[in-house]
Amino acid sequence: MGTPTLPTPNAELDGGDQDCGSGLLLSLTSAIRRIAAGQVLLLRTREKSVLADLPVWARLAGHELVAVQGDGPWQLLVRRGGPAAPAPPASPDRLADVLSTGIPAELGTRLWLYSNFHCNLACTYCCAQSSPKADPRSMPPDLAAAAVEEFASLGGKELLVTGGEPFLHPELDEIVAHAAVRVPVTVLTNAMVFGRGRRREMLESMDTARVVLQVSLDSASPGLHDAQRGTGSHARAIDGIDQARSLGFRVKVAATLHEQDLASAAALHARLDQVGIPVEDRLVRPVAHEGFAGAGLQISVDTIEPEPTLTVDGAWWHPVAVTSKSLRISKTPLPLAETFAVIRDILDVQSASQTEGRHVFRCT
Ligand code: SF4
Questions:
Q1: Does the pLDDT value for residue 235 go beyond 60?
Q2: How confident is residue 87, by pLDDT bands cut at 50, 70 and 90?
Q3: What is the whole-number distance in angstroms between the Cα of residue 191 and the centre of ligand 1?
Q4: What's the predicted TM-score (pTM) here?
Q5: How many domains would you assign to the chain?
Q6: What CATH number is associated with residue 21?
Q7: Using a 6 Å CB cutoff, which residues line ligand 1?
Q8: Residue span of the structural domain in which 130 resides
Q9: Best exposed site among 39, 178, 205, 263 by fewest CB in 10 Å?
Q10: CB 326 within 8 A of CB 26
């Protein structure tokens, strides 16, 4: 009996030491989407667990594992199956839930955009590793505009602009003005830098009917907030909230807390009651174990609902994971449709395997 002839691969992927829980799933899904049905991908891996996980993934995703070669490192040949089934249309009920805390947004309806990565603060838990010295990695307005155009054409409903501190981007007003006529925009800010000058002008230029500000405020009094975000930052955040509201902006407040500080949220709610921030405009979220944070919620494609996120240098699974290369979907932010398609393929596989335990981690 002769040795079976193996197909010549049409594409290759070097998975290195990654396992399916640390980024391989994203790069594998992206790579197999780039070949046609019936073509073969050669995956090189040094990670032994892939030998057990990949056959399950291939079966659930509708692909065929053709061969496994080697004695470590290994080469696996995967033949792509037919195109994935199109996503079901969003139902009105699900769309109504999009803005509800704790409910996963319909894929394609929300998009995060990092305007820049530098910041006037360097918070202890910053998932983006932002600081005054951080590489700005600023999003050019024309790239942001292209992303928003595609997002709107795909049925996008809501844009979230974050950073770094977005008001340090000198063209934030241009980015927001273009986006806001297409979709409602929320700008996440520490509210400390728009008190005067050019940044004040940018703030005042924004359409208060289309733009919401979400301000970080971790505690009712300065103690915890200043410990996490810097001395004096609490007072300036409160001042910034007052300024924005006096200009007519809807202001949401978001607190980021370590598990041991969760009890302090009650006092924050009481303070927000006093100043008239409604309950639906408040968010208490856990610290994510990303960026500067030495502890916190673990983020992975298996445990966190996707929140598609664009930076100037890529597309990512979630806005709190933009320092984690294993959660980068693409090294280019566009086309957005491909990012949504990769995420959809992964969700399809997860649904097929009836994965449970994925949580919603909303940042607004
Ligand atoms: S958490 Fe926000 S305010 Fe703090 S350093 Fe990071 S981007 Fe700046």
A1: yes
A2: very low
A3: 11
A4: 0.80
A5: 2
A6: 3.30.110.40
A7: 119, 121-123, 126, 128, 130, 163-165, 190, 216, 229
A8: 105-340
A9: 263
A10: yes
